[in-house]
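Continuing the batch. This is chain 6 of the set; chains 1 through 5 are on the previous pages. Same settings as before, nothing changed between runs. Recording input and output for traceability.
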Amino acid sequence: MTDSTQTELRKGRLGVAGIVFFVVAASAPLIGITGAVPVAMLLGNGAAVPGAYLAVGITLVIFSIGYAAMSPYMTNAGAFLAYVGKGLGVNAGIASAFAALVAYITIQLAIYGFFGVVTSAFASGLGIDWPWYVWTLLIWVVVSALSLLSVDIGARVLGILLILEVAVLVIAAVAILANGGPEGWNIGASFNPAEVFAGGFAGSAGIALAFAFASFIGFEATAIYGEEAKNPKRTVPIATYVSIGVITLLFALVSFAMVTGMGASQVGDKVIELSEGLANPAGVLFGLTEQFVGGWLTFLMGVLVLTSLFAGLLAFQNASARYFFAMGRGGVLPKSLGRVNDAGSPYMGVIVTSAIAGLVIVIFAIAQLDPFLNLFSWMSSITVIAIVLVEILVSAAVIRFFMQKGDGNLWTTKIAPGAAIVLLTLGLYLLMSRFNLLAGTAPEGVDPSLPESAWLLNPLGWFLVLLPFLALGVGYLVGRLKKDENEHLVKDFAS
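Output for chain 6:
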């Protein structure tokens, strides 16, 4: 293999379906629906949660209009690094890449924690009582190994798992909706804007919207696979729209089915009953599935929770490794990171990503921190702040890029990305104001579910919520300090 091919990802490996598999798998819909939706219903706006997911999906579609309009000009594995760099300058691009790395590394760590909890509980029922970190480290080995293989192999694995995951969710939703539940369909209770936004952004609506934003993590990763896509100028925009559409419809449909199965007027009481007071959020969907379909689908769904977590781990491992690759190849990080193996995998990025994850898992295990309350809650909350922050920068980059280029129509290059900035900034406000609830970092004696508790954080909470901004600042400084070493990036973004 020549030097040139050692610094290039294998081209033409992924079509629209392959990219969609990676992206939708990263959002782990089964995990979001079993874990986040019941919490959003109880603490947020109840029967109107389906409308909250639809509202967030529409917001991200608006964001994607500008994102897709710029994608034909971008085929860089750094994704956000490339978009922001091309529109706002190299230093801003590097800053966004550091924030994006924080997002993808922390979400992978969050999933590792959740995987350890779920697998340990599942195995305990079979008489195997191993601590959570043993299962986590075992899957860490598998994910690291698969990430070193060709990307199309990973896409095929994710494709099979994702099809099964979506199938069980759709079967459960259709069965519940066909039955009609105790009160029939109440579309107004779930999708009427007056119900969706009842309680205001500082209250129940804001809580539901914050959880909905957190459930869409990963859709924006379509551009990461641009270098490995077949006809990326066409494939990436289509994959972006398909991914958001699938995630939005799936969350809206299944959550509406859950509301129907419980009865719109009884959602709060039923969530408490089925989830044992949120001690077991998955009990809501599992209980409804057993009632309206049967125990066989509930069992299959329980198994697929594990495969969904595995799929998410593999997807985010690939995303993080490609960011390291792009930053190494561009001279921002050590150039050794910008190399690939014979399978076309950015193996040094994989090694660094795995090393970070392994180290954090070991630290949490030694410190006896809780894999769900600490590892999952802290890390996933950081992720969504970082992702929305960078999406705002991408929207600004789209506007500036087309203003400089003097091309593109008004809607796709100015109005839509401008609207996205406003909507995403509102989303970022909601996420930060409710960080104490998302991450469990409220000061002692403060109930984070109350409207007046917004922005009340303990010192750890403030550090975690500001970490993406800190990464953004560090990245910008690195860009300025290493400006003479970023020739590859400067060339890319000037072309």
